[in-house]
Amino acid sequence: QVQLVESGGGLVQAGGSLRLSCAASGSIFRIGAMAWYRQGPGQQRERVASITSGGSSNYADSSKGRFTISRDNAKNTVYLHMNSLKPEETAVYYCNANIYTMTNNAYDFWGQGTQVTVSS
Q1: What does the alpha-carbon distance between residue 110 and residue 84 come to, in Å, rounded to a whole number?
Q2: I need a surface site. Which of 51, 89, 95, 113 has the fewest CB within 10 A?
Q3: So what's the pLDDT on residue 93?
Q4: What band does 75 get if pLDDT is binned at 50, 70 and 90?
């Protein structure tokens, strides 16, 4: 059994910062790419940023220059540092990871989501 648990969401004023964390636990052999997605009210889920196991990152155009994704492989944890937040970025933020279990099969796992609310 594998779990992803996000933390760090909350209420912040426009222009503020937040850092999200997502820790993976359970029967993990290794973790491949990890990513953050978000889903605003009435919107489709969209990718915010992703990072490979080697540390190469990729960002959605809307996130470039303001968000930073990083990971600590020793802790099976991925982070998302968000600066200059905008009200339209109010959403539930989800962690995603491609995880190889002890049987060496790879699966996509999702966290339960953490709410980020940006007030104007």
Answers
A1: 26
A2: 113
A3: 98
A4: very high
